Amino acid sequence: MNDQGIIEVEIKRIVNTVAGCGIFLGTDEKIFVIYIEPSIGAAILMQMQHVKKPRPLTHDLIGRVFHSLGVSVQRVVINDLKNNTFYARLFLKQENELGKKLIEIDARPSDCITI
């Protein structure tokens, strides 16, 4: 845990289920599951396994746009759980000839993980 009370987690496993996919996130001490759409689960797996795709997926496009604009993902914070829905904040840093800019955006955890 860092000084802001944030615990760093990693993807432990992605499992296909009848209703979609489960992403198991956590530490060595604790794991939790976020259920997502099958297509997002497949995109995350392809990214993790460095699968070459014939055409960019939406998340690949976003990554390329970020790169072109000098934007990098600093971190993702899963900050809330309401009515069985997880919420996240995507923290971006833009750095170019005009200076540095930090940006915080509301986003779905699964989209953040894929990006």
Shape: globular
What's the number of extended β-strand segments? 6
Report how far the terminal alpha carbons are from each other.
23 Å
Query: What is the count of helical runs?
Result: 3
Work out the helicity level: 10-25%
Query: Mean pLDDT, rounded to whole units?
Result: 91
**What's the order of the H and E elements?**
EEEHHEEEH
List its traits.
alpha+beta; single chain; 115 residues; three-stranded antiparallel β-sheet; 6 strands
Structure description:
This protein has a 3-stranded antiparallel β-sheet, with helices on one face. Strands 4-5-6 form a 3-stranded antiparallel β-sheet. The longest helix has 11 residues, at 38-48. The chain is 24% helix and 47% strand. The model has no long low-confidence stretch (mean pLDDT 91). The chain contains 3 helices and 6 strands; from the N terminus they run βββααβββα.
Summarize it.
With 115 residues, this protein is of the alpha+beta class. Helices cover 24% and strands 47% of the residues.
Topology:
Layout: E1 10-17, E2 20-26, E3 31-36, H1 38-48, H2 58-68, E4 71-82, E5 85-96, E6 99-107, H3 109-114
Antiparallel strand pairs: 1-2, 2-3, 4-5, 5-6
